[in-house]
Specification:
The complex is a heterodimer of chains A (402) and B (209). Chain A is α/β, with parallel strands linked by helices and 402 residues long. Chain A contains 15 helices and 14 strands. Chain A folds into two domains: 206 residues, Glycogen Phosphorylase B (Rossmann fold, 3-Layer(aba) Sandwich); 183 residues, Rossmann fold (3-Layer(aba) Sandwich). Chain A is 44% helix and 17% strand. In chain B, strands 3-4-2-1-5-6-7-8 form an eight-stranded mixed beta sheet, sandwiched between helices. The chains are: A alpha/beta (402), B alpha/beta (209).
């Protein structure tokens, strides 16, 4: 191909709009693809004060009207937002000097827009499944959950290839939607270790003191306060850890379990040992991760586990539950500790071991950082993704759509 | 002239008056040398057929069977309506003169087709959300009104079945009067008026790609 590959990426979040892991994923992936000679047009939801169109590190970013009228519920909003996204993305793509070669959709949140654009322009659709409804909810219990599950199934059906970020997710998605093996491709998620570079020499003592007393170890949790993330297991481990170590549990994030969790903490009389910070400012989170004596990812369902990678990049030792993508990221006793999932005793044991054994802590931290540089580098991930695009286009060129 | 009609009801699926109306109109259009395609919804009779009267139909089903409301049902079904129309467009050498959309249900598909492929559309109003659900201001109704608004805004031409409806469209959506053509069904000038509306829409816009 003489001109560069032209890709349109659809994502419901992109910085400064950050809700979950898709936003940083699309940010770093698109930017690293641009460095690797791929022209990327990101179409995403608008955000207060963010421009409707800008170029960030060679990536064209378009922010569409995300439907801001009141919506009956979240799922309906998703479809209404997709109506706008599809309309605007169609207009953008039609006006570009070069045709879009591949539409790349991230999750069901942009399902109908991705499916529509594929058909109107007759170009292949690549889908990255970051998660699934059946996994998030541990089953399908409501009409909404079934509807989302069926939308996900439809999206993977319409996709030329489905990208998953871990071997675990490959198996899960294959099982959830009955997909053939050759439709699935594994490309890991990445992390940007340079976020933490500048903090290496910075004195964070005063910053640390706003979260914990100097004599308290910081045990950090970053994530939504929802069932699938297993935060309630960490809360149950609090008294078990405090028996052995003087520590402060810093819980970053928000979610529907927040009130329930803080009630449990109150009933244990440990409010002074557990700090719910809610969301933390973007520039403060890396500092906090840097200050953490141990980072804990106690998930029950975890397609990938980006928080674990971030902690590893920040050189904060980690304890994760041995499940999903986390199992693949961490080598037990080498680059972290894997605790039994849904087991507060095991989790407390892992946390205590890291906090009490300094040699072990330092070894784990160095090994983890090495692994980050070797396996989860965005440049390598972009090259793998480019390879997937080229594979798809090779097949497409022989189809009757070409 | 090649026209595609979008209607959420069409025989044998009859909900209100729209099915019979669209069916009669499509037959008349064929007699007036319009290559007429109808894209509609049916849960089981899916696929393309050619009727004895020359009308070509495509019936699509919703890939998502479980829904929380009419809104989520319509919004997902739109993708299949859009796909059926796209297939007609590509099979016909990338040329469709216009799409005639009945009510709000399939406005989203028509809007994407307009922006992606340059196919203009006529928005034919049978009823409005304000009259179907008077006095309701729930997010559900507002969303449907939003889709109706989008239809009026993006349409090349709007048709109304009576002067009263024309006035209601102007009152509720501030649509310029010149944009709305009154087409009274089953009168002598009925089909002639429809054809006129189609011609304004088809030739008024830039040609299809």
């Amino acid at each position: 191909m003489k001109r560069p590959l032209n890709v349109m990426m659809l994502s419901w979040e992109y910085p400064p709009r950050v809700i979950g892991g898709i936003s940083p994923h699309v940010f770093f992936l698109s930017k690293s693809l641009a460095k690797n000679g791929v022209k990327v047009h990101v179409v995403t939801c608008d955000f207060p004060d963010a421009p409707a169109h800008e170029v960030i590190d060679g990536v064209e970013v378009y922010r569409i009207d995300s439907y801001k009228n009141p919506s009956p519920d979240f799922a309906t909003w998703v479809y209404l937002m997709n109506l706008n996204m599809q309309k605007e993305a169609a207009a953008i793509a039609a006006k570009l000097p070069d045709e879009i070669d591949v539409f790349h959709a991230h999750d069901w949140l942009v399902a109908t827009a991705g499916i529509g654009l594929k058909h109107v322009f007759r170009k292949p659709l690549l889908v990255t499944m970051h998660s699934t409804e059946i996994g998030r909810r541990d089953g399908l219990h409501t009409t909404t959950e079934k509807m989302i599950n069926e939308t996900e199934a439809w999206l993977t059906y319409e996709a030329w290839r489905v990208v998953c970020c871990s071997d675990y997710m490959m198996q899960h998605v294959k099982w959830a939607f009955g997909l053939p093996n050759d439709k699935l491709v594994m490309v890991p998620n990445g992390v940007n270790p340079h976020v933490y570079d500048g903090l290496e020499k910075q004195d964070l003592t005063a910053f640390r003191r706003t979260f914990a007393l100097p004599e308290e170890k910081i045990i950090l949790y970053v994530g939504r306060l929802v069932y699938e993330k297993g935060i309630h297991i960490l809360i149950n481990a609090v008294p078990k850890v405090l028996e052995k170590v003087n520590a402060k549990f810093v819980i970053v994030g928000s979610g529907y379990m927040k009130e329930q969790l803080s009630n449990i903490v109150k009933s244990m009389g440990l409010e002074h040992k557990v700090l719910f910070t809610g969301f933390v400012e973007e520039e403060n989170l890396p500092k906090l991760q840097k200050c953490a004596d141990v980072s804990v990812v106690p998930s029950l369902f975890e397609p990938f586990g980006i928080v674990a990678l971030e902690a590893m990049a920040a050189k904060s030792p980690i304890v994760v539950s041995d499940t999903g993508g986390l199992s693949e990221i961490v080598d037990h006793d080498q680059s972290g500790i894997k605790a039994y999932p849904n087991n507060a005793d095991s989790l407390a044991w892992g946390i205590t071991k890291i906090l009490l054994d300094e040699n072990f802590r330092n070894r784990v931290r160095e090994n983890a950082y090495k692994k980050i540089l070797e396996k989860y580098d965005w440049n390598k991930i972009a090259q793998q993704t480019r390879h997937v695009y080229e594979g798809i286009l090779g097949e497409y060129s022989k189809s009757f759509w070409a | 002239m090649r026209a595609i009609i979008f209607s959420w009801e069409y025989p044998p699926r009859i909900i209100g008056n729209l099915a019979e109306y669209v069916s009669a109109l499509a037959a008349h259009l064929v007699k007036n040398s319009v290559e007429t395609h109808v894209v509609t919804y049916h849960d089981s009779l899916t696929g393309a057929t050619q009727e004895a009267n020359g009308v070509k139909t495509v019936r699509v089903a919703n890939p998502v069977q479980t829904h929380i409301s009419l809104l989520t049902w319509a919004l997902t079904l739109n993708q299949e309506v859009e796909r059926a129309a796209v297939n007609i467009h590509y099979q016909a050498g990338k040329y469709v003169d216009l799409i005639d959309v009945y009510d709000w249900h399939f406005i989203p598909a028509a809007v994407t087709l307009k922006h992606a492929l340059g196919i203009p559309f006529v928005y034919s109003v049978d009823s409005l959300e304000d009259h179907r659900s008077p006095g309701t201001n729930l997010p559900f109704n507002m969303a449907i009104r939003g889709i109706e608004w989008l239809g009026f805004y993006e349409a090349k031409k709007v048709t109304a079945k009576s002067e009263w409806m024309q006035n209601e469209i102007i009152r509720l959506y501030k649509v310029p009067k010149e944009k709305i053509k009154i087409i009274t069904p089953n009168t002598n000038n009925w089909v002639k008026n429809v054809l006129e509306a189609y011609k304004t829409a088809a030739t008024g816009g830039s040609a299809c790609k």
